[in-house]
Amino acid sequence: MVVDCGNVHVHLMEETTRKCLNIEGLWDLSNPNSEGSKLRRVDFTDDEDVDTYVSENPIPDDYAAKIFNDGGGGSGGWISGGAGSRVLTVQ
Questions:
Q1: pLDDT digit string (tens) for 58-71?
Q2: Which of 2, 8, 11, 84 has a 20 to 30 Å separation from 23 between CA atoms?
Q3: Residue 47: what pLDDT?
Q4: What is the pLDDT at residue 43?
Q5: What pLDDT is recorded for position 1?
Q6: Which residues, including other chains, have CB under 8 Å from residue 67's CB and lie 6 or more apart?
Q7: Which residues, 6 or more positions from 16, have their beta carbon under 8 angstroms from its beta carbon?
Q8: Are 20 and 62 in contact (CB under 8 A)?
Q9: Whose CA is closest to 35, among 44, 43, 27?
Q10: DSSP secondary structure, 3-18, as one string
Q11: What is the mean pLDDT of each successive set of 10 residues along the chain, which is 91 residues long?
């Protein structure tokens, strides 16, 4: 969940989500190999550049399991439904 408070954004997330998203790493521009630096080099107007970034940075397995099928522990993952569906349930 993200709470937008004007100049401040508050991110509330589970431990698995926090580790996989590495929000702090997205802001680290001091290292040219940091996730934030790599992401800022992507030309989002170039589909090939985006595809390359996505293929080199797949969704971590534990995070994918959580968002798509609740970690294999039952139904009700974060993303459910057919093609074109939005997020239906948040646990």
A1: 877 777 777 776 54
A2: 84
A3: 94
A4: 94
A5: 67
A6: 59, 77, 78, 79
A7: 62, 63, 66
A8: yes
A9: 27
A10: EEETTEEEE---HHHH
A11: 75 78 80 86 93 86 72 48 43 45
On whether the CB atoms of residues 34 and 25 are closer than 8 A, the answer is yes
Residue in this structure with the two tokens 């004007």, named with its chain if needed = 6
- pTM recorded for the entire structure: 0.52
Write the CA distances from 68 to 15, 22, 26, 61, 80, integer angstroms: 17, 19, 23, 10, 7
Residue found under tokens 């970690």: 71
* 3-state SS record for 40-80: HCCCCCCHHHHHHHHHHCCCCHHHHHHHHHHHHCCCCCCCC
